[in-house]
Amino acid sequence: MDLNTTDTTLKYCDWRVEIYNCHHTQLWVAEIIFSTISYGILAISGAFIFYCRVRYMWQGLFVDHGGTGIRPLPVDCLLLFFMIAAFVRAIHSAFLLGDVYTAYWQRELGEEFAWTILSYGAVTYLIGIIYTIPVNYTRGTSALVSLQTNRETTNGDANKSSTPNALSFTTHELFLPTPNQLNICLLVGCLWPSLIALPSAILSGLARDRGDFVTASKFTTVQYSANFVFDIVFAVITAYYGLNFILILRGTLKQSKQKSGASFFKKNSSQTRKAFHRLKYTMAYLFYISSYSGPWWLVWAIAHKKIIASINGINVYLSIMWYIAGPQLMIVVCQFVLARRIYQQLFSRTDNGHRTVATNGANGPVSPKSPDSVFFMNPSSAAANHLAQ
After folding, report:
1. DSSP 159-219
2. CATH class for the domain made up of 7-154+162-388
3. Are 95 and 101 in contact (CB under 8 A)?
4. 3-state secondary structure of 82
5. How do residues 373-382 score in pLDDT, each as one tens digit?
6. Which residue ranges run through the membrane (predicted)?
7. What is the DSSP string of 310-370?
8. Model pTM?
9. Residue 375 in 3-state DSSP?
């Protein structure tokens, strides 16, 4: 673990799995230290948030979807898997920093296993969100979704201003898989990194332990090509359903305001508006991180030997993305919105402005209340109820 090795003994290292006795060892060590600290903090905070979620708002990880499928609860699955991934990532970084690993296959396993767990969280969240799109929109394998817009009409007097006294609707078709199809997608999404990327990483490490660097490079190509395919497909599906579901919820808010009146809407739409914003931020960042990282996985799959053969801009940039500006930001965003939701659940404001802990007498904390009973008169209410929790 000598950080001051003479230049004659230095080599160009694959900083994913080794950081000592290399060119720019100090840089790799600094990045690993940041990775260990940041993921360690996220793992601890995630564990605390998950404990609060289980203690006060727990509904399980998977529920029966009316006998037609197994629906993952998106919020709880995302929080659990991201917490586990942060723990794994922190441990892997600490092991690299302490030079604990004794074989390359161990290093490759630690490197890829965290990404696999992150994939589980992303897939279960996305499938759970698609499940929440109301089933009464479905017409066979597709759905017709009416999106409300205001249409201004006049009474024929040019001197009088236009007033929005009518509603117009635009209708477009939204593909909604059946529950069985969603369960197949969930299975494929979890098995893809588990049966392709993760085994390829281990096989690459085993080949490197034997000194067969050519075979190791081929398995690395397979590993990150699989990650590229996963991220691009995930980004496309996230963009499609994320945008459509946001439009559905926004239409729900508009229709509720139109039917219920502005004052009643303002008083009772808080849960849905907050759910709308949580969905918007989470889906946007999931799309961003997958669409951004996917092409770089392909670059690494094709040119990883050339990239690590010298200290160049792409080499340093990818190492920073790997250890400093990677999933940490995504995990922070998810933990923040969930912590805020838990805080809002635990503390409610009474009419005189005093905060009270939401409890259910001797039976402990209350479970989240359904917004359906508050103001929803629209099929999208079930979706908002799932998201609000």
Report:
1. TSPPEEEEEEEEEEEEE---HHHHHHHHHHHHHHIIIIIHHHHHHHHHHHHTT-HHHHHHH
2. mainly alpha
3. yes
4. helix
5. 222 223 344 4
6. 32-52, 73-97, 117-137, 184-207, 227-249, 283-302, 314-339
7. S--HHHHHHHHHHHTSSTHHHHHHHHHHHHHHHHHHHEEE-TTS-EEE-B-GGG-BPPPPP
8. 0.76
9. coil
